[in-house]
Amino acid sequence: MGALSAEERPVVGQVANEVREAIEAVIQEKQEAFARLETESRLRAETIDVTLPGNAPAAGSIHPLNRIVQEIEDIFIGMGYTVAEGPEVETDYYNFEALNLPKNHPARDMQDSFYITEELLMRTQTSPVQVRTMKAMNGRTPVKVICPGKVYRRDDDDATHSFQFNQIEGLVIDKHIRISDLKGTLLQFSRQMFGSQAQIRLRPSFFPFTEPSMEVDVTCVQCGGSGCRMCKHTGWLEILGCGMVHPRVLEMGGYDPEEVTGFAFGMGVERIALLKYGIDDIRHFYTNDLRFLNQFGRL
């Protein structure tokens, strides 16, 4: 263009513009054609047959242990209990000393513990919540609580043991509380949990925080008491421990054992679940195998 004369430049410039516009028009046309072809190809490849059944999303369900906890809570709330909770990292005082287990007491060997410091540990039972509840009540009655939660003990994992498991403990304090009240409460619980035909029996035992202390058995949920492999042909299955609150524990909680009495009980949630659902290995609850957990979605 620079070499052209002044008269030729407008003519050549006009021709150049027309050529450029023609080329751009062809390019635009081709791009639109390619876009249409791509859209048509994608529509053919992504066609949805609305007559086919859809893929249902996987639905979650309540974990069997949570289900048992809720069921136990509902039973006791129906009997007038309230639910109390406490810290999982507990002091030695609340976990042991206030429960009639002073330092160096031989009964502490029953509960090998995860200590954080000399005075802090992962609680080995939910009984500290009972002590905290008594102190919070400041001597008032009645006390009627259950205490669900996780507990920790140094143990080897096997079919019936775990270093972490769930407990639910109960505490009742008032005037004129007797063993017959304890037995009636546990019989009512057993029948609502395992069926109206369930029976219980109490066997003497030892716990530092109750006196007298007892183990509670329920008629076998599989054979109804006639004897089978599950109950080792005895007709009975152990479900929990209980007893009348030790006077020393009442004193540590701020109560006068001459004025009030009480009973306490404690059960392992996994133990109840094993019996209720007929499961033979506690580890199934923690391995998150969907083949196992999906069985409880319909309950």
From TrEMBL:
<dbReference type="InterPro" id="IPR045864">
    <property type="entry name" value="aa-tRNA-synth_II/BPL/LPL"/>
</dbReference>
<keyword id="KW-0547">Nucleotide-binding</keyword>
<keyword id="KW-0067">ATP-binding</keyword>
<keyword id="KW-0963">Cytoplasm</keyword>
<keyword id="KW-0460">Magnesium</keyword>
<comment type="subunit">
    <text>Tetramer of two alpha and two beta subunits.</text>
</comment>
<protein>
    <recommendedName>
        <fullName>Phenylalanine--tRNA ligase alpha subunit</fullName>
        <ecNumber>6.1.1.20</ecNumber>
    </recommendedName>
</protein>
<keyword id="KW-0648">Protein biosynthesis</keyword>
<dbReference type="InterPro" id="IPR004188">
    <property type="entry name" value="Phe-tRNA_ligase_II_N"/>
</dbReference>
<dbReference type="InterPro" id="IPR004529">
    <property type="entry name" value="Phe-tRNA-synth_IIc_asu"/>
</dbReference>
<dbReference type="InterPro" id="IPR022911">
    <property type="entry name" value="Phe_tRNA_ligase_alpha1_bac"/>
</dbReference>
<dbReference type="GO" id="GO:0016874">
    <property type="term" value="F:ligase activity"/>
</dbReference>
<keyword id="KW-0479">Metal-binding</keyword>
<comment type="similarity">
    <text>Belongs to the class-II aminoacyl-tRNA synthetase family. Phe-tRNA synthetase alpha subunit type 1 subfamily.</text>
</comment>
<dbReference type="InterPro" id="IPR010978">
    <property type="entry name" value="tRNA-bd_arm"/>
</dbReference>
<feature type="domain" description="Aminoacyl-transfer RNA synthetases class-II family profile">
    <location>
        <begin position="66"/>
        <end position="275"/>
    </location>
</feature>
<dbReference type="InterPro" id="IPR002319">
    <property type="entry name" value="Phenylalanyl-tRNA_Synthase"/>
</dbReference>
<dbReference type="InterPro" id="IPR006195">
    <property type="entry name" value="aa-tRNA-synth_II"/>
</dbReference>
<keyword id="KW-0030">Aminoacyl-tRNA synthetase</keyword>
<keyword id="KW-0436">Ligase</keyword>
<feature type="binding site">
    <location>
        <position position="211"/>
    </location>
    <ligand>
        <name>Mg(2+)</name>
    </ligand>
</feature>
<dbReference type="Pfam" id="PF01409">
    <property type="entry name" value="tRNA-synt_2d"/>
</dbReference>
<dbReference type="Pfam" id="PF02912">
    <property type="entry name" value="Phe_tRNA-synt_N"/>
</dbReference>
